[in-house]
């Protein structure tokens, strides 16, 4: 399809994925306990819902849904996996915003969870979302094949944990008080862990659900890695150039806290050039899947990441 039609179809699918994810999360975070649960405390559930409903572009769920679609997988398997990933993402935002971490008062244009509730409830809400994510993926409702579910659980744990997002957050915090700034190589590693790992999982998950070949899975991983790196650079640029009203969160905080960013290391022009190069790398990786025009929407997602304004 031509560029304009592709961009329009991408936006339609992004919006559809967001709506589907919102509805599915709403149902998953209902008051009634599941078999094996004893009760769902009302205030904790309210905080979990506040943290995960009613905001965000839902890019990560979109990537799960669209990467699975490449292999003909649609419906509950992709959507439930997408919801689990979004729960992990939302929990990370709740914890990142805490006073002990980034100490933010604004997220998605409204008070952060610890401001809307309290710090203890915010911590527990994050814990609840993290744990529930693995409940959702491990549930037979997500996929009839236990091997597929186990592969998803393992990949998600590796992306979200010590060697992925959580480890990246630890490196990010340590860099703020380090005696010397992080090198370019160390900054890239930190960002690949903190931001890139979950975005990479989103497309890896589609390959797991769809039974991708080894070469297709490797190509999707390369796409996810390049997309994640481009996303983080775009985020750094937005923080340097944007305003809080447009971003829905406090702008300029990276420089204030001395965070390691490619904007700080390279300057804005070089950071933009690197972002654009990563988008090209991502689209080239998609061509290596051998799936042809079916990957056009994911290629448009890479361009969207680079051009976003919030």
Automatic annotation (TrEMBL):
GO biological process, one term: terpenoid biosynthetic process
Keyword Magnesium carried by entry: yes
GO molecular function: metal ion binding; prenyltransferase activity
Gene Ontology cellular component annotations, sorted alphabetically: cytoplasm
Co-factor requirement: Mg(2+)
InterPro entries xrefs: Isoprenoid_synthase_dom_sf (IPR008949), Polyprenyl_synt (IPR000092), Polyprenyl_synt_CS (IPR033749), Prenyl_diphosphate_synthase (IPR053378)
NCBIfam families: FPPsyn
Family: Belongs to the FPP/GGPP synthase family.
Protein name: Probable farnesyl diphosphate synthase
């Amino acid at each position: 399809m031509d560029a304009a039609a592709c961009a329009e179809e991408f936006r339609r699918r992004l919006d559809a994925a967001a709506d589907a994810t919102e509805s599915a999360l709403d149902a998953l975070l209902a008051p009634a306990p599941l078999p094996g649960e004893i009760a769902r405390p009302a205030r904790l559930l309210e905080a979990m819902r506040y943290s995960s409903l009613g905001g965000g572009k839902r890019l990560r769920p979109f990537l799960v849904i669209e990467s699975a679609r490449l292999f003909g997988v649609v419906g509950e398997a992709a959507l439930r996996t997408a919801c689990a990933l979004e729960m992990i993402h939302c929990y990370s935002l709740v914890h990142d915003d805490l006073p002990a971490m980034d100490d933010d008062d604004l997220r998605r244009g409204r008070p952060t969870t610890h401001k809307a509730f309290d710090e203890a409830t915010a911590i527990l809400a994050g814990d609840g979302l993290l744990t529930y994510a693995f409940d959702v993926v491990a549930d037979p409702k997500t996929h009839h094949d236990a091997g597929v579910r186990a592969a998803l659980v393992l990949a998600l744990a590796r992306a979200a944990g010590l060697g992925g997002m959580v480890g990246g957050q630890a490196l990010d915090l340590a860099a703020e008080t380090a005696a010397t700034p992080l090198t370019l190589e160390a900054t890239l590693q930190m960002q690949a862990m903190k931001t890139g790992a979950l975005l990479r999982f989103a497309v890896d998950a589609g390959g797991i659900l769809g039974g991708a070949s080894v070469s297709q899975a490797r190509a999707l991983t390369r796409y996810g890695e390049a997309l994640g790196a481009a996303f983080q650079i775009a985020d750094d640029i937005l923080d340097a150039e944007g305003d809080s009203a447009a971003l829905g969160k406090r702008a300029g905080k990276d420089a204030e806290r001395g965070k390691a960013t490619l904007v700080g290391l390279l300057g804005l022009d070089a950071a933009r050039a690197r972002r654009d190069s990563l988008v090209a790398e991502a689209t080239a990786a998609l061509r290596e899947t051998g799936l042809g025009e079916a990957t056009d929407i994911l290629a448009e997602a890479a361009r969207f990441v680079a051009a976003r304004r919030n």
